[in-house]
């Protein structure tokens, strides 16, 4: 496939660290490539800037600066509009040895000082986020919007450099604990259990959403949500009605100011934030009201904490005193720098918010250019937007191609279910901790990719204990989670933070990809939802409405 109409290499390879982000070629098929489940809708031309800066540049940057001994981060490709990734091998023994030495020096200090480090990072991120989010785009000239466009690009690069540098260090530290537990014959699934049950900004946001549900019931406003056919103008109608309805919208505005800086999909400039379009969250509130059930967050948290302490007690009871001392010391390092907790907490500051200024800059430029549909700008590549802002290109030179690109995007989006989950021959093993620990590409999983499996029984990696039986809900992306009904079993390629609200309603979760440190696994354990990850092709073999029996324990 030639790619987007008018696409040339310079459109997506502006910034290169070790290897550039580019189109998939036939020669690439000699390697092993993984379909990126975090972007199930594919990428617009403007959205490919994120792939260049975050998934390619920032990961390669972080592999050097962390430092990450085994690999040079990710090598990324785009096929049609969809993303494939592969680990970027580090072949130099000299560099490998140098990174080992640097890591041995840096990691202990990083772990001991992690609380202060992360607090400082939060402060820096929030200052930058609030500054860039508060920029007023109305009435700006194209040149001013071009300056803002450059600023948002640098913000994406800087934010995701922070993201992956911290992620790699936390994963490496966690891997050390996992290796020790393996030596001590402690089951793989127990390792994550030892570190669960700590409050994050994401879990706080979930509780805040349910407080808005509670307030609807308290003010006797349920009918506003259960009898409406459209949520797009619900807030306007409630404000106009006055009284308790208007008072509730004031509380909802405060909720959005704190928790509305998020999009339904990660880093997609087509995706509107809750601030821009609150309809999805209002619809979720309506679904929660119809279900009639409210999660007992305190009871679930207590159960998760008890499960953690019981698992620790059982594990320690099987160890000698010398083994207990080593176990406790290594566990303490993971508690100080807890990847499971951080992998949820950081989403509030980085993953949720990255696309918001990206989209704002593109739409602001469209308004400055007086386009009929300002959103058409997301179907331009970043260099084209910059040229438009600087007067080097006129819109009528691009408008025909933009129309072709929109058709191209939607045709590939509709074909997502036909895209293979993997390309090339699976290797015996991979070494990048994001691929192995987050995405679940263990040697055992790589081996299963070579076989078809049973027609009625699908196997994967148990990630959150428990069992569930119920109807399947197969979804392509998080923008469809409002379809989920209470008691259904979610089946998807994999989850990101945007899926978290679904875990208050589902009975279980199955994902094509993911490891015991993936989002689905972590949130499943925190909510007491059984979960099986790394199933390979569950989304292709299960249909919505199928009755499923899920076992997340064995």
What is Rg?
Answer: 24 Å
What structural class should be given to the helix and strand makeup? alpha/beta
Which strand order do you get reading across the main beta sheet?
Answer: 6-10-9-8-7-11
In DSSP terms (H or I, runs of 4 or more residues), the helix count works out at 20
Mean pLDDT: 94
In what range is the share of β-strand residues?
A: 5-15%
* Poorly predicted parts: none
> Could you tell me the number of beta strands?
11
How much helix, percentage-wise, in residues?
A: 40-55%
Q: Could you give a short account of the major beta sheet?
A: 6 strands, mixed
Based on Cα principal axes, name the global outline.
globular
Whole-Å distance between the termini? Answer: 42 Å
In short:
This protein has helices at residues 48-65, 93-112, 114-133, 142-183, 188-193, 201-218, 222-226, 234-241, 243-259, 279-291, 297-317, 321-336, 339-345, 355-368, 382-389, 399-414, 433-438, 443-448, 519-527, 538-541, and strands at residues 22-23, 33-35, 71-79, 82-89, 422-423, 461-464, 467-474, 489-492, 508-511, 531-533, 547-551. The protein has 554 residues and is α/β, with parallel strands linked by helices. Helix 4 (142-183) runs antiparallel to helix 12, helix 4 (142-183) packs antiparallel against helix 15 and helix 8 packs across helix 9.
């Amino acid at each position: 496939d030639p790619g987007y109409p008018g696409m040339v290499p310079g459109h997506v390879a502006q910034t290169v660290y070790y290897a550039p982000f580019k189109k998939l070629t036939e020669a690439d098929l000699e390697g092993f490539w993984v379909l990126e489940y975090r972007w199930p809708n594919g990428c617009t031309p403007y959205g490919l800037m994120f792939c260049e800066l975050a998934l390619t540049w920032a990961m390669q940057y972080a592999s050097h600066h962390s430092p990450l001994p085994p690999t040079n981060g990710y090598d990324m490709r785009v096929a049609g509009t969809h993303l494939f990734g592969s680990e970027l091998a580090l072949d130099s023994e000299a560099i490998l040895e140098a990174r080992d030495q640097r890591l041995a020096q840096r990691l202990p200090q990083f772990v001991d000082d992690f609380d202060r480090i992360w607090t400082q990072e939060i402060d820096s991120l929030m200052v930058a986020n609030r500054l860039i989010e508060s920029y007023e785009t109305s009435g700006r000239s194209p040149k001013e919007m071009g300056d803002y466009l450059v600023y948002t690009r640098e913000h994406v690069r800087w934010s995701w450099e922070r993201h992956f540098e911290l992620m790699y260090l936390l994963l490496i530290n966690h891997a050390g604990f996992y290796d020790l537990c393996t030596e001590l014959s402690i089951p793989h699934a127990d390792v994550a259990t030892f570190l669960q049950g700590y409050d994050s900004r994401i879990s706080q946001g979930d509780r805040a959403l349910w407080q808005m549900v509670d307030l609807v019931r308290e003010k006797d406003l349920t009918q506003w949500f259960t009898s409406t056919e459209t949520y797009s103008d619900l807030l306007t109608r409630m404000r106009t009605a006055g009284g308790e309805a208007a008072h509730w919208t004031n509380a909802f505005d405060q909720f959005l100011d704190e928790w509305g800086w998020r999009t339904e999909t990660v880093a997609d400039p087509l995706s509107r934030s809750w601030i821009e379009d609150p309809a999805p969250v209002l619809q979720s509130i309506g679904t929660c009201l119809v279900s009639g059930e409210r999660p007992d967050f305190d009871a679930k948290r207590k159960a998760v904490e008890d499960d953690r302490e019981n698992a620790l007690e059982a594990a320690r009871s099987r160890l000698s005193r010398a083994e207990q001392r080593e176990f406790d010391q290594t566990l303490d390092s993971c508690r100080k720098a807890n990847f499971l907790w951080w992998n949820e907490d950081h989403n509030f500051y980085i993953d949720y918010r990255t696309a918001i200024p990206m989209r704002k800059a593109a739409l602001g430029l469209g308004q400055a250019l007086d386009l009929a549909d300002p959103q058409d700008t997301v179907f331009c590549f970043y260099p084209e937007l910059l040229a438009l802002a600087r007067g080097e290109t006129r819109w009528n030179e691009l408008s025909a191609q933009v129309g072709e690109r929109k058709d191209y995007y939607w045709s590939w989006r509709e074909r997502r279910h036909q895209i293979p989950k993997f390309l090339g021959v699976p290797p015996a093993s991979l070494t990048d901790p994001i691929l192995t620990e987050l995405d679940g590409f263990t040697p055992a999983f790589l081996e299963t990719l070579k076989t078809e499996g049973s027609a009625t029984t699908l196997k994967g990696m148990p990630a959150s204990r428990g069992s569930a039986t119920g109807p399947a809900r197969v979804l392509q992306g998080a923008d469809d989670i409002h379809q989920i009904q209470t008691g259904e079993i979610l089946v998807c390629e994999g989850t990101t933070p945007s899926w978290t609200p679904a875990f208050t309603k589902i009975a279980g979760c199955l994902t094509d990809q993911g490891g015991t440190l993936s989002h689905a696994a972590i949130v499943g354990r925190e909510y007491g939802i059984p979960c099986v990850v790394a199933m390979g092709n569950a989304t292709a073999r299960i249909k919505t409405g199928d009755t499923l029996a899920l076992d997340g324990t064995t």
